[in-house]
Every structure is written in C-alpha cells, then in structure tokens.
Amino acid sequence: MNSSGVLILIPFIFSLLSFVSGKKWSSIIALISSVGSLFYFLLLLSAYNVKTNYVAFGFYYDWIPSIRASLSFGMDAANLLVLMLTQIVVCLAVLATMVKGNDRTASYYGLIGLTHTFLNAFFSAQNPMTFLIFFEATLIPVYFLILNFGGPKRKQAVFKFFIYTVFGGLLMLLAILFYQSNMFPQLRLDSWADFYQYKLSLKYQYWLFAAFFIAFAIKAPLFPFHTWQADLYSQADRPTLMILAALLSKMGIYGFVRFNFFFIQVVYDWFNYITLLCVIGVVYGAIVAWRQKDIIRLIAYSSLSHIGLMAAGTMTLTNIGMQGAMFAMLAHGLAVAGLIFVADVMIRRTNEHSVDSFSGIARNNPRFAVYFFIILLSAVGLPLTCGFIGEFYLIWALVEFKFYIGLVAALTLIFGAAYMLRWYQKTMFGIPSSNIIGFQKLSLSEDYIFLILVMLILILGLFPADWIGFGQFAYKYMNFIPDN
After folding, report:
1. CA 253, CA 219: separation in Å to the nearest integer?
2. How far is the C-alpha of 376 from the C-alpha of 121, rounded, in Å?
3. With pLDDT > 90 as the criterion, what percentage of the chain qualifies?
4. Nearest partner of 34 among 81, 97, 76, 77, judged by Cα
C-alpha cells in the first residue's frame, strides 16, 4: 500500500518493539526501522509526479465527526524535502548511537522511534488540526530523551524548552479553535485547501498571525525567542541533538511555509518588522557564535543565524524565497547534523568541549579533517555545496524585496565563514595538543556516517535543479488557492 500512513506506522511499530526488547536488539530494531522508513520514502518519491498531482499517497481518518475534526496525511511539493531530510537524519542519528562509546538503552531507541513517528506525521499533515496535534506531540519523546539521557544540567534546560514550546503550542491551538469556531458550521478543515479557502476579517487575521508567528518563532527558534536553544543543545546527547537541530528546528520554518500564504496581507503589512527581527537574529547569532569557546554552543548560535535567514526568506512570499527556504532547510539540516557529529567525534575521544582544547588533529587524522572541511564549506554556503543554493536564493529574494535587508543578511554570512574557519583552523592545524596524541582514527561506522553526509552535500550542491524545483510547485499551489 503506497500511503503516507505507512511512513508513520513503520517507525511507530518498531519503536514499540524497541521498548520491549533488550539492549542488544533495540539498536538493531531502530536501525531497521530508520533504514526501512528511508527506503519506503524513496519508493513513494519514485512514484510521485509533482507536475500532475499536488497531494499524493493520502491517508484520511474522520476523527471526531461532530466537530468536523479529521486527521489527514499526504506527500506534496511543500513537505517532500523535509520528509526526505527526516528519514536521512534519523538514520544517521541511529548509526551515531551505535558507534563505540555511544551505547544506549532500549528505552532510548524507543523514544527515538516515537520522535521519528511524530516528525513524519507532522511534516505529512494535510490540515491544520493534524499539524497542531503532532506539532505538540513531538515535544513528548524529545523531553524524555533529554531528561533521561542528557547532561548534568538537563533538568533546567529541558524545563525551559518545555515551557517555551507549550506556550507557543497553546497560542496556536487557541488561534485554530477561534478560526474554526468563527467559520463553523460551513467550514470543514479536511485539507490545506479548505483552510486557505475561508478568510476571516483582516482585524482577526492580525491576531491569528501573531499567535502562529510566536509559536513558530519559538520552535525554530528566532531571536528573541531563542534563549532555550544553547542551554538545551549543550545538555542533549549528540545523536539526539542531531535530530533536535536538524529536524525540530525546521518545524518552525515549515510552519511559516504552510501558513504565511493564508495571511498574505498581514505578512506584507508586517514585513519590515518581522524581517528586521530575523536579520537581527542573523547578526546576533553570528556575533555570539564568534565569541563561543564551547563547540556545541557555537553550533547552536550558528544555527540561530541560519534559521533567521530562512524565516526572512519565507516572509517575502515570492517564488524565489519559497524555493530558497525549502532547499535551505534540507541543506542546513545535513550541515548541522554533520557539524554535531564532528563535535561528537572530538568530544568522545577527549572529553573536552572547548575549541581551545584541540589542535593538530589533521596531522594524525587527515580523513577526518577532509570530512570536517567539506561539511564546514556547506555550512558557510560555499558554491558547489548544497549550502550555497538555498542561501543564494534567500538573499536573492530579500534583495529583490528590500535591498538593504538582503545586503545586511549577505554581509553577515562573512561572519559565519569567519567563526567556522576559525574553529577549523584552531582544531585541525598547529602542533598536536596533549589530548590529541591518543586521538583514535575514525571507525568504520564513523566513516560511513561522514561519507553519507559528504556525498549528499556534494550531490545536492552539484545537481540541485530537480530538488529546488519542488519549492516552485509548492509556491504555485499555495499562492493561487486563496481568493485574493
């Protein structure tokens, strides 16, 4: 059966098996689940024709008929790239847990499976109610992953994250309920098309968009809703962090992709204020990342900077901005997952988190240095890597819309290159520090993870046309459904 429901069921069933299996088998079950989900997604992808059918492989369940609430899933041009990213990153995260020194319990793999399930359900949601349910549901397994397997200050970090995200989810719930109560009984939110079809008066749209914006800005996060991010990243174990930074952060940007076209007039009216906030976040993230010594916190603030640029691109409501944001989500997800695994390799071998604690790694581990360099080049948006395409389109969209905003965003990328190259120079070159002398060479499983990441970064960078085109089809669909 070719259905997006199967893509949700595969990790769910295997997560239950992981919970009840022993430690020895749970990792194998998790790997089978993640690889199976990836291959099933590729099967759906090979059968999907974006030019002839927008939504495909649908699964529909009339959940609560009395209030016209339904669960609806499917694959479309807007969610295809993030669904692909989800399958890839979860596979890599599970592989990372199987590296020597990263042993995990059965409950850990069960929670990873639930996170995978809810992410697939969220990104394939085809109506606002389904979107909301799984927007909140993803918080549950992530909360327990960090609470049970995080660092010494995990309780404070995960509590702050929980409060922030629950508050944002509550705002979105109230907004959707208000919308549905005002349009009931003529409205049935079975699809995004239904949602786009009915419009409230402009004064209500301002309030509703504010609620959605805060919910997505917290999840992404955007400045100034980011104060949970660095603390949580520093306390999460690294395989979990790969999922957190590469996938959960995209939920907020994906929310903007889905909902901005419903609030076209509001987005245009507030464009200057929102993009100013986003660009402040881009600049702030870059400056704070430059000052960081802790590797994980450096990655966190670097991510804040890139997420701000993606959010600004979605606010242009243009074809170029949509294509850039969607491809940038994919590219950033691969790059940040790679950077976190680089950090994991370094920290596991030395138990050091500071950039200043490393030097001369390339002398004994040239292969690791090459992998790190290619991932870093994608993170800073160098041409011929996938990181370049998305950022180029985003800056192009911003320059066309507001030249000065695009200019500031473009100049800030120089800061990104500066702090990333400094991290590389400090750790890879120079006289090997004492803790590097016994720095073990990469294991076979670590090589596999890096090879997969590097190949994807280069292939998507060299042949981006087909992939970035999905953004164009998504833009056409969402732009022409509303009655403007």
Report:
1. 8
2. 31
3. 47
4. 97
For residues 158, 221, 285 and 115, what is the CA-based torsion angle, rounded to 10 degrees?
Answer: 60
When pLDDT is cut at 50, 70 and 90, the band that residue 188 belongs to is: low
Token readout for 27 is: 């990792």
Q: What is the 3-state secondary structure (H, E, C) of 282-314?
A: HHHHHHHHHHCCEHHHHHHHHHHHHHHHHHHHH
Q: How many CB atoms lie within 10 A of CB 296?
A: 22
Contacts of 384 (CB under 8 A, 6+ apart): 458, 461, 462
Phi, psi of 60 (to 5 degrees): -130, 135
- Helix (DSSP H) and strand (DSSP E) numbers for the chain: 21, 2
DSSP 177-205: HHHHHHHTTT---SSHHHHHH----HHHH
Q: What is the pLDDT of residues 328-343, one digit of tens each?
A: 999 999 999 999 999 9
Structure tokens belonging to residue 251: 């939920």
Q: What is the mean pLDDT of residues 317-336?
A: 92
Give the contacts of 307 (CB within 8 A, at least 6 positions apart): 220, 221, 222, 249, 252, 253, 281, 332
How much is the pLDDT for 440?
A: 80
Neighbouring C-alpha atoms within 13 Å toward the C-beta of 475: 20
Mean pLDDT of 393-409: 87
Which residue is it, tokens 């390799």? 345
Q: By three-state DSSP, how is residue 54 classified?
A: coil
Q: Are 171 and 214 in contact (CB under 8 A)?
A: yes
Q: Are 222 and 190 in contact (CB under 8 A)?
A: no
**Contact at 8 Å (CB) between 353 and 295?**
yes
pTM of the model: 0.93
| Structure tokens given for 297 | 């916190």
Give the number of residues written for the chain. 484
Over range 434-440, report the average pLDDT. Answer: 73
Q: Which of 168, 170, 113, 103 is nearest to 142 (CA)?
A: 113
* Cα angle 149, 14, 334; round to 5: 60
pLDDT of residue 307: 93
- 10 Å Cβ neighbour count for 414? 10
